[in-house]
Amino acid sequence: MITDLLRPSRAYPVKQSQSGISRRKTIWQRLHLDPWLLGMLLLLMCSGLVVLYSASGESSHMVIAQAIRFGVALVVMLVLAQFSPQTLMRWALPAYLFGLLMLVAVEVLGDIGMGAQRWLEIPGLIRFQPSELMKLAMPMMVAAWISRHELPPNWRVLLGCAVLIALPVGLIARQPDLGTSLLVAAAAVFVILLAGLSWRFIGVIVALASAALPLLWMNMHNYQRQRVLTFLDPESDPLGAGWNIIQSTTAIGSGGIWGKGWLHGTQSQLEFLPERHTDFIVAVLGEEFGLIGMLAFLMLYLLIVARGLWLAGSAQDTFGRLLGGGIMLTFFIYVFVNIGMVSGILPVVGVPLPLVSYGGTSSVTLMAGFGILMAVHAHRRLLPR
Amino acid sequence: MREPRNTLKNPEHALRIFRVRASLAVLVVLLLSSLLVGRLCYLQIVEHEVYSTRSENNRVRVEPLPPTRGLIYDRHGRLLAENRPTYNLTLVRERVDDLDATLTLLVDLLQLPADEVEEFKVRSRQRQRPFQPALLMSDLTESQIARLAVNRHRLPGVEVQAQLLRYYPQAEIMSHALGYVGRINAEELKELDPGNYAGTHFIGKTGIENFYEEQLHGRAGLRKVETNARGRVLRELGHTAPQPGSDLTLTIDIDMQQLAYDLLDGRRGAIVAIAPQTGEILAMASVPGFDINQFVTGIDVASYRGLQEDLDLPLFNRATRGSYPAGSTIKPFMAMSGLIEGVITPEQVIYDPGYYQLPNDDRRYRNWLRWGHGRVDLERALAVSNNTYFYSLAHDLGIDRIHDNLEHFGFGTRVAADVAGQGDGLLPSRDWKQARFEQSWYPGETLSVGIGQGYLQVTPLQLASATAVLANRGHWVRPRLARSIGEEDVPADLPDTPADIEVSNDSYWDRVFSGMEKVLSGREGTARRTGAGLEYRMAGKSGTAQVFSLGQNQKYNASELRERLRDHALFMAFAPVDNPQIAVSVIVENAGGGSTHAASLARAMTDAWILDHNCGLPEQESCLGGNDAESRP
């Protein structure tokens, strides 16, 4: 079954002759990019840099570093957008297997940082998190797997999916990085849901998951339990683990409707906020730009998701649709989990705010995802309607 | 295995499924988004006021500014207690990248044994909340500080913090008089004004440090600061300066104190010297002393137990709390009591056969000289320390009058104005005995009190104070340790000063003084050897206190037992007789007779004060003025 995936699918007969003879291609079509989506992403990045400047304590060094990462991420997006969905589908299994191998390597010889093994380092060369690769390889693999079968997926296909999900998610959770493992799993689950998983099945799985919760709790690390407990009652440990939540809600709440003004957030500028330029950057946004700023950002995110879903929906093959849809829903979940965590309605998990939080790896991964989405969309004319 | 069906066979169906599911997804996305919007509205509109206030409080913090503790000087402005900067090594774990490497480097830099790393690791965990510095090591040496400073860039999160610590340059000789400061304990905390002591870690525990705590401490100040979450101060918004504690100038003369300590060194005992006209305590030594500096930062258990279990009781302040039988040193006061009450006249003579018998009693109360002194008048009774004379006097006075008159001299009371932890001694009375033993008073007990034995017990401070009152011809000035507090001089007339002692015939004082002078200068004087070569007129009285019993829980070996059963040697004296400048009491435990073992110490004290300081000699009336206090920095 798996080996089928390595062969080019017959679903995509290559017919170069049909590619846009009659009409002149626009520059966007040549680049295989969607100008609307790209424009919104660039707007988000620029706004993010403005917030980052304030959150980093007016460090232009950090803003420039972030801008360079954005540049790299854009290049990655551009490159990925050039591949046809068939190519991506062919890559799904190797990428997945490579990611899995890396996760095993981390398990064996990974670097220990922040009490969790997440980084893999080839000294002097590169240092990266295999779990980031998995964020894309996972939905690719599942989408490829499902799209090889008839929709909606039957129980055999679903069993295959379960195995595909369980292996990397289990490894990531062992690092331990519960947040990322759940997000990786979510990316795969979205793909399955979009593929038309029957409601009966969904009901059974939800029931099973609820039953498994106590089991999960028993297997959690102390710091993870602490986070959950602190989420339930942040005041119980106001100077310890609850500190972040109390400070970030205070920052957001004190921002009011209009905010305290750029660079004038006392919570943020006085370093009451921990991780203010990474995971908690929303608190800076909420404090300095108020509800208006928050709504503007949220609106921008929603527009990006909407445009992304539309692009996915207009794809002409199941693989592209499922993959694009899954990527976009995962993107939204990042936004939701991050803002929810910082505003105190979700427990603290290490999820950055997409394209605003300081950090290179996540930006590159996200933009790679958008690159795939654009590839899916831009190559649709290859197929006859 | 079945060939998977090609999805292209039914592309429309697949697309339809996707569209339905995608629409559902959009619905969920909108639902979750409205949840976020709702939360944001709640935080930023509904609860805005609450968070705004909280944020404001977060930013501004009020910090107490502890006042600097007042310094303590001796009467000539020589430093007795100062505040020394010490340097502590602290570490904030959150700011350390690699704890193990940092600790290893620290131990290396500080040139400590390698196993200290583990100790540091333990200490670095001792703190309650994030970003709170943990104390790794206190009292860094200068070279250690220098090495840390040079390597600062390699040690993020490691800081050297300065702290003022009390230091006593004359720790041992001043130990009891001065007392010491220590960390505030839970009980003291309850009593303290929390605002004033918010930034203070130390409080006076004993002695002067304890008695003048309020003045030495000063008033705490405040400052409003803007800080970050790590407690780092970014900006000061407001400031109320602390009022530093007042500097204290004591009446103690460090030379006299040193002399007193040296005179007793190697033995157990106490010397108290008072300037009678002003009540100034010139020296108040209790030997052995101990290093009070140990107590400032907290003494370790082993050292403390060592001090506590030391048979010589170094922690015990003999000068103020030690209760000793007065022995014959009580006789001048008995004589004055008899004269005041009219029971005797100076000229009255009794015959001493070597013992005294109560009427209708066979028991013989013996004079120390078996065959008796024969005809004895007041002055001779004092000079030769005749017991029979004073048995007779005591019997004639009765315990009630003895009690009242001795109390007037300050026995059985806390005489000094500002000495913390004074003992009462013991001035027995009928009431006391009834309350204590539920027994009536026996006449024989009066006789014992008459020669300073029996129930009567005095502290060295009481004896010196009473001697000063005697030298002052009954005029009371309360003994004190503080000469000036800050800029203000302590007034001569302190509250609760007892009334002066009224005597019908002023010459009675001279007769008693004359008898006391003969102790040192008379042909028969008990301390005539000590009195040889006196350059001024000195009056004194020796005493030998019998040690009746041992402390019940103490174990002694045979030779120590013999030593500790020996009598206590006492001496009280003042000089010059016509213009008293110093009154002194000396007690040497288990030394034997007072005339031989204590008198010379008293003489050394009066010699030092009168000759070396040129006090009270004809050329100079007195040297108690503010003459040499200007040498103070």
Question: How is the secondary structure organized here?
Answer:
The complex is a heterodimer of chains A (385) and B (633).
Chain A: H1 27-31, H2 35-55, H3 60-81, H4 85-109, E1 111-113, E2 116-122, E3 126-128, H5 130-147, H6 155-173, H7 178-194, H8 199-218, H9 222-232, H10 243-255, H11 266-269, H12 281-313, H13 318-342, H14 360-378
Antiparallel strand pairs in A: 1-2, 2-3
Helix pairs in contact in A: 2-3, 2-12, 3-14, 4-5, 4-6, 5-6, 5-7, 5-13, 5-14, 6-7, 7-13, 10-12, 12-13, 13-14
Chain B: H1 11-46, H2 48-59, E1 60-65, E2 72-73, E3 79-91, H3 99-109, H4 116-124, E4 134-137, H5 142-150, E5 158-167, H6 175-178, E6 181-183, H7 186-191, E7 202-204, H8 207-211, H9 213-217, E8 218-219, E9 221-227, E10 233-240, E11 243-244, E12 248-250, H10 254-264, E13 269-275, E14 280-287, H11 293-296, H12 301-309, H13 318-321, H14 331-341, E15 350-352, E16 355-357, E17 364-366, E18 374-376, H15 378-384, H16 387-408, H17 430-437, H18 443-450, H19 460-471, E19 482-485, E20 488-489, H20 507-521, H21 528-531, E21 539-545, H22 558-564, E22 568-575, E23 582-588, H23 594-597, H24 599-612
Keywords (chain B): Carboxypeptidase, Cell inner membrane, Cell membrane, Cell shape, Cell wall biogenesis/degradation, Hydrolase, Membrane, Peptidoglycan synthesis, Protease, Transmembrane, Transmembrane helix
Pfam families (chain B): PBP_dimer, Transpeptidase
Catalytic activity (chain B): Preferential cleavage: (Ac)2-L-Lys-D-Ala-|-D-Ala. Also transpeptidation of peptidyl-alanyl moieties that are N-acyl substituents of D-alanine
